[in-house]
Please model this.
Amino acid sequence: MNFSDKEFFPPRRKARPVKVGRLTIGGDAPIVVQSMTKTDTRDVEKTVEQIQQMEAAGCEIVRLAVPDLEAAQVLPEIRKRCPESILVSDIHFQYKFALMALDAGIDKLRINPGNIGEAEKVRTVVRRAQEQKVPIRIGVNAGSLERRLLEKYGYPTPEAMVESALYHICILEDLGFTDTIISLKASNVKLTVAAYRLLAKQVDYPFHLGITEAGTQFSGTVKSCVGMGLLLGEGIGDTIRVSLATDPVEEVRVAYEMLKALELRSRGPVVIACPTCGRLEVDLFKIAGEIEQATAHIKTPLTLAVMGCAVNGPGEAREADLGVAAGRGNGMIYREGKAIRRVKEEEIVSALLEEVERFVADRAAGVNTAPKELAPEPGGRQKPLVTLQ
Ligand code: SF4
Model:
């Protein structure tokens, strides 16, 4: 970023660091990306396959629903098949499943202590988690608030959600347990944002952000980015999960795009593509789509501009690590501010991908093999790709 963002964005909220497996959530640790499997946990094959797909997309923590005994019983096998994965068991009410998850070597429990039942059961789970250094996420959900709170507040409010969180936090603190992470999720963006803001003033536990049941891939992405974007922009949030009614790999991709947009994490390309307009003279949607798809696996951070004409194209393409400014069946390829190749429209994708490969290899080797800038046309400037009337 070229300007001082400190003037515009508040500093990150200071949350106590909590270890989850080899990762840290809170403190100065990067915002962690997590998601949840959507397979039937009892189907070990499919669940393991989905965990691997999510991790390939960059998912750092994977949560698994443990709705019944059979799901709890397969956790050791999933653990064995995914020894390096950071796994969270999502459990409601059943303290025995929590103990089975701890036995299986799970890295984090998502369970609300107030819902476990008798004090002795709570104590048993919390003591075991403490012994194994397994943190607990308290997950308050506006859709399942305690009845007494709904009676008190009439409907889910930020205050009701915070009161619920504090109730569960107190249970853990009374048992001397502080490796706690909190989430306060609602499907309503304003309710979610208000609840996190309110609790942020009262505790220093790290926050897991999410807009729950956000919606379909399109609407849920918008809602998630607005809600979590607001909070992250205020410095609130230590780990995020995007909830979409689609493949969890998409949730992970959206999470990274959000963090990249806020410059909180970097991973792979940031694709800058012009929206196109009446000046466009190449099939930019196709070119941008193919480039985005072909570079999705790349982890090296880079900016990649795909621009449709010579009006804004060269400027954006020069600013990016790599870019193309297209026009009249041609494309000028740029690398790190230099125009390096002029190619035909049908060669734009392959030429840009070649340059991406070279750039990534250079970054890995710590060298720079960028070709020299094309010689300027007579007159001292690169010949424009299109002549503006
Ligand atoms: S770069 Fe050119 S084609 Fe793309 S939106 Fe801007 S003016 Fe239109």
